[in-house]
Write a structure and sequence with these properties.
By secondary structure, this protein is of the alpha+beta class. It has helices spanning 19-22, 40-50, 97-117, 119-123, 131-153, 166-186, 193-196, 204-230, 255-271, 274-302, and strands spanning 7-13, 28-32, 59-62, 83-90, 94-96, 161-163. The protein has two domains: 7-92, Ubiquitin-like (UB roll) (Roll), CATH 3.10.20; 95-305, no CATH class. The chain has a four-stranded mixed sheet with strand order 2-1-4-3, with helices on one face. The protein has a two-stranded antiparallel sheet with strand order 5-6. Helix 3 (97-117) packs antiparallel against helix 5 (131-153), helix 5 (131-153) runs parallel beside helix 8 (204-230) and helix 6 (166-186) packs antiparallel against helix 10 (274-302). The longest helix has 29 residues, at 274-302. The model has no long low-confidence stretch (mean pLDDT 93). InterPro entries: 3-oxo-5_a-steroid_4-DH_C, SRD5A/TECR, TECR-like_N. It is a multi-pass membrane protein. Its main location: endoplasmic reticulum.
Length: 318
């Protein structure tokens, strides 16, 4: 049997129809040359060309019998007549991951200086800042400046966008928990120099906290740089992560999450701040969910090639 001269891809609407989907003229038949065989990404681009408002990052393509989203790199399997049927869904308005990260990390960078430098506006009194408060202020600013720089110059994202709503959810986490709540608690008169001087918060424990924090932040940066080197620019290629944090003595799938938690643990160590404890608890809980899910995906994807002794996020435990 001769190979088909063209591949016909019929795209129909899924069951859940948004206002945008209802405005489209579907089903849509698209034609592609058989060589090279078209991918899901090619179909998305063709749909966007036909309906410019329905951009590729907003589309979800699946097979009629399987609602699971097809990856952009999937090659379409056509029948003997050169035909393929796909179902398209609407993921809703999207926003780039990079933009979301920049906005969410900006919150603490704006909020902490306000409360630190304008105490009378918030506490109705002057605050003689203690070494503890100065330390927390420096740790928070350096941490989030580092995160902003990593977002711009280091991170490579497997997906270019996320749902627009996430910018409000993610920003709320950082702007409220590590921003407003932590700043209000950390720079209040109860942590000022006259109160803290001579207590356990004003001694060797502060130096230990700085040592742990600096080690954790540097380790986190090394892991992020290592992850960048494992993914070539402009690709979604993944390999088994190796190197510092991934190998002994840590043996973790996500050492960046571990070091992130350790850095914030240092802030709690020197302050015993309830706000810091709350932020750590919420952050670690979310990172634990992500780490365990991705850890299982790693083992499924790489099989026997993936080190069996690796834990997800906490060395030797989880």
């Amino acid at each position: 049997m001769d190979a088909p001269t063209n591949i016909q891809v019929e795209v129909s609407l899924g069951r859940k129809k948004t206002a945008l989907l209802r405005s489209l003229k579907m089903p849509l038949t698209l034609s592609f040359p058989p060589s090279p065989p078209p991918t899901v990404r090619d179909v998305k681009r063709a749909i966007q060309k036909a309906f410019p408002k329905f951009y590729a990052d907003r589309q979800k393509l699946s097979l009629p019998e399987a609602p699971k989203s097809l990856s952009d790199d999937s090659v379409l399997l056509f029948d003997a007549a050169g035909k393929v049927e796909l179902v398209v869904g609407d993921l809703g308005p999207q926003i780039s991951w990079r933009t979301v990260f920049i906005v969410e990390y900006a919150g603490p960078l704006l909020i902490h200086p306000l409360l630190y430098h304008l105490p009378t506006a918030f506490y109705r009194t002057e605050v003689q800042h203690s070494a503890l408060q100065k330390s927390i202020y420096a740790m928070v600013l350096v941490h989030f400046i580092k995160r902003e720089l990593e977002t711009v110059f280091v991170h490579r994202f497997s997906h270019s966008t996320m749902p627009l709503f996430n910018i409000f959810k993610n920003s709320g986490h950082y702007w409220v928990l590590s921003g407003l709540l932590l700043a209000v608690d950390a720079y209040r008169p109860g942590y000022s120099q006259p109160v803290v001087a001579g207590t356990w918060r004003d001694g060797p424990l502060l130096q230990l906290g700085w040592a742990i924090w600096a080690y954790a932040e540097l380790s986190n940066l090394i892991v992020h740089l290592n992850l960048r080197s494992l993914r070539p620019a402009g690709t979604t290629t993944r390999t088994v992560p190796v190197g510092y944090g991934f190998s002994a003595p840590f043996n973790l799938s996500f050492p960046n999450y571990f070091f992130e938690t350790l850095a914030w643990g240092a802030v709690f160590l020197i302050s015993a701040s309830p706000a810091a404890a709350l932020f750590i608890a919420v952050s670690f809980g979310q990172m634990l969910i992500w780490a365990q899910k991705k850890h299982r995906a790693y083992k499924k994807e790489f099989g026997d090639k993936y080190p069996r002794n690796r834990k997800a996020i906490v060395p030797y435990i989880i």
